[in-house]
Every structure is written in C-alpha cells, then in structure tokens.
Amino acid sequence: MRKVIAAINMTLDGICDHTAGIPDEALHKHYEELLDQAGVILYGRITYQLMQYWQTLLKNPSGEKSMDDFAGAIDRIPKIVFSNTLKNTDWNTAKLASNEIEKEVIALKQQSGKDILVGSRSLIIQLFNLNLVDEFQICIHPMIEGKGLPLFDQIKDRQFFKLLKTKTFASGAIILYYEPIKQ
Questions:
Q1: Torsion over CA of 19, 24, 30 and 36, rounded to 10 degrees?
Q2: Is the dihedral of CA 113, 24, 65, 90 positive or negative?
Q3: pLDDT tens digits for 142-175?
Q4: What distance in Å separates the CA atoms of residue 98 and residue 89, rounded to the nearest whole number?
Q5: How many whole angstroms separate alpha carbon 21 and alpha carbon 31?
Q6: 88: left (phi over 0), alpha (psi -120 to 50) or beta
Q7: How many angstroms separate the CA atoms of 45 and 42, rounded?
Q8: pLDDT in tens, 51-63
Q9: Beta carbons within 8 Å of 59's beta carbon, 6+ residues apart
Q10: Are 32 and 73 spatial neighbours (Cβ–Cβ below 8 Å)?
Q11: Distances from the Cα of 88 to the Cαs of 15, 54, 83, 99, 164, in angstroms?
C-alpha cells in the first residue's frame, strides 16, 4: 500500500506560506529528490496556482541550477488538483481530481507504485482529520513570519507522533519526519 506523505514548509511560529521561508540550493535539491522519489503530488487550487510559477522557469531558466532542476522535478511528477473552480490545469502533468478527496486518496493508496505527496495546507488538514496521513515531513525555517495561516489550526483531535528522523540544513532549516501513532 502506498504511503501518504504530508510534506510542507513552515516558520517557527507555525505559519505555512509558500512565500515565507529560506529556500536555498540545499533545500531545492532536497525537494527535487523527494519529488523524484514520489509517484504523485496532491494540491489544492491555491497552492497549485502558486506552483505554476515553476513552469516559467522551464521556458526561461533562471540560470540557478538548483531552482532550474527543481522546476524540472515539479514538472515531471504527476499532479492531482482538488478545485471546485478550475476548469483545466494548463499543465500537461496535472489533472483535476475526479472524486472527493477521501475517495481519491483511498483509491490512490490501494494502487501499487511510489508514495503520494501532499503539498497543500488545506489538503493536509483534511487528510489528517480523515486519518489518511502516514507520515509528516515538516521543514521548519528559522524565522518568525508573524502573520498567515497556521498549519494545525483546524485539527479535530489530539494526535501523538513518533519521530522517525531529522535532517538539518546549513541555513538552519530542519526537517522533522514524523509518523502518526495509531491509537
């Protein structure tokens, strides 16, 4: 059975904002490798539209290898977008979800293949509340944003986790790998 991995960046104060954080060469390389190891990534509309930025680097490379390589990785991975307003994705490796999130993810988990990444705050919350997240990979950036959306503000019940490992970057960012403890 495929695992659902919630992979997201946040600041020390728990804010999830794809424009906050300290993306550097090492972090881009880490996420490039994560994308290459996964079979699909799930996005909500807002995050998906932010990720479309990387399409511009495919057409007009930045010259910064880590960013251009990440753009290639995000382009290669199949994407499923959950949206009630989008009519098309305008990206040949992306498609709109055909079912509600719970049915779609249960069907994906039962297929063979590589793991399923979730890269949108709203989807992480929904899937967590449905007990469908198998692992969290939370990258904490050494900064306080002071405003924005907290990752865990809509969680229904208390949950405990087992720390699997950590990964530290020279920038001071740290990725915490957690597995929910099934109760």
A1: 70
A2: positive
A3: 999 988 889 888 888 888 999 999 999 999 999 9
A4: 13
A5: 14
A6: beta
A7: 10
A8: 999 999 999 999 9
A9: none
A10: yes
A11: 29, 17, 10, 15, 38
Gap between the Cα atoms of 62 and 28, Å rounded: 13
Closest CA to 171 of 142, 139, 137: 142
Which residues, in sequence order, are bridge partners of residue 168?
174
d(CA 179, CA 142): 23
Cα–Cα distance between 82 and 166 in angstroms, integer?
30
- Are 31 and 38 in contact by the 8 Å Cβ rule? The answer is no
Distance from the Cα of residue 109 to its chain's centroid: 16
